[in-house]
Amino acid sequence: MPDVKGFSALHALNRENVNLYVPKTPGCYVLDRSSTGGFEVHYTGRADYDLEERLCSWVGKGYLYFKFLSLPDRKSAYEMECKVYHNLNPVDNKMHPDAPDNTSYTCPHCPQPNSQLYRQLFGL
Ligand SMILES: [Zn+2]
Q1: How far is ligand 1, taken at its centre, from the CA of residue 108, in Å?
Q2: What are 103-124's pLDDT values in tens digits?
Q3: Which domains does the chain show, CATH number per domain?
Q4: Which of 8, 44, 68, 73 could hold 29 in an S-S bridge, CB 3.0 to 4.6 Å?
């Protein structure tokens, strides 16, 4: 079994918390800009190499809270980002996540041209 747990606890997004809690590993994160209590995913992103550095770059840009998930490599980080993107449709994500630089990874959650869905809909 892969040792992938859920996302971390909710933390206020500031440099101290990022330095304290977030590892320098690949991973996925979600950001929340609501101040009304309750957690909402407004944005999801990933780090190919360094979650801590990536989350630090979001400090002071309007988001108040974050959760993160450390993952073993950038492929799993990309796939998790895609999973959150497709399942939660974060309102601030205007575009589908890009694959990591110099890779040909594809989103496992987008319908593929040879998928059962395509065959059903288009008889291909
Ligand atoms: Zn997709």
Answers
A1: 6
A2: 999 999 987 777 777 778 877 6
A3: 11-122 (3.40.1440.10)
A4: 68
